[in-house]
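#lab-general

N.A. 3:47 PM
ok so I finally got the sequence cleaned up, no stray characters, all 346 residues accounted for. can someone with queue access submit it? mine expired

B.Y. 3:52 PM
send it over

N.A. 3:53 PM
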Amino acid sequence: MKKEKWKLNIRRVDVERMLILCASALVVALALRQDDAVTTQYQDILENVPVVSDNSLLTPADTQPTVVYYQDGEGYLVPVTRRVDKTDGIAKATLSLMVQSSANDLAAARLGLKTTVPEGTAFDLDISGGKARVDLSKEALNCANAEQETLMVQSVVQTLCQFDSVDEVSFLFDGQKRSKLTWGTDVSGDFDGKSLNLESVETMAGTGSVQLYFPSSSGRMLVPVTRTVFSDADVTTAILELVKGPKADSGLNAPLPKDCGLLGVNMKDGVVTINFTKQFMDAAQGENSVQSLRAIMFTAAQFPGVKEVKFAVEGQPYQPPENAQTTFLNQDTEIMTYYPGVIEID
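B.Y. 4:20 PM
back already:
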């Protein structure tokens, strides 16, 4: 009798296990069906993203770096280094990444940024003798306002001028030369890309300009700003201006403490050594130390002949951490590693 009861209990347990397994299988099936629906909904976007953000499946020989210019929430153009499949038409391929589309908008939004060229815009590009003539299709005339027109024009100019074969850029729209766009933006002349995110449009005789790199309000990006100076536009002047920090209403962060002083800048055989007061260590060891150090290095490296940037504190050498040293500005893969998630911009 006990033996039969023991067998009955075993059978009851088996039945319960079968019921649990069946219920689990049903839950999994429903979940997979839901995942299939989601995958189908976004499949076109995911399959058509032209840039490889995770290079684990590709070797460096399969891709090449290029710089794409996006718009941030403060109205600045922000350069982002991305790796794309190798192609002979890299300039045109880079321009296409800035056109509004599901894939491009998603790639930019992952970095908290926006694309700058109206949806559907196509490019015809001719580069000869250091000059690029770019013909944008009629869709480029569909900017929402004058600010968007300016950002579109500037982002195209900056993108093309990154290439050694381009010194100046001229525009055609739908095959025609235009003096102004829909909202009045002047596109009549040649553009050289030397005034990215210009702080002030006022210039005077005897002035020059330097490009300064400031951390964005979120600290995720370095934003290049062009500042007018009333002295020689050299590496010393640039670092002095960087120490002053961004304009109060800029929405950008200062890379150095207010009480940090500059003791000297020396350049020899392509090596720039920048000597700061001890307050520099507050930035070098702070929460945003990597961006602070990179802001200094990129600001100094803009000048011809600069091959290396070194630091000193009160005359003593300072070695920055390895992760602060890079030749690529705002790498998309690095930003997504340390700052994952999508940020919406109004």
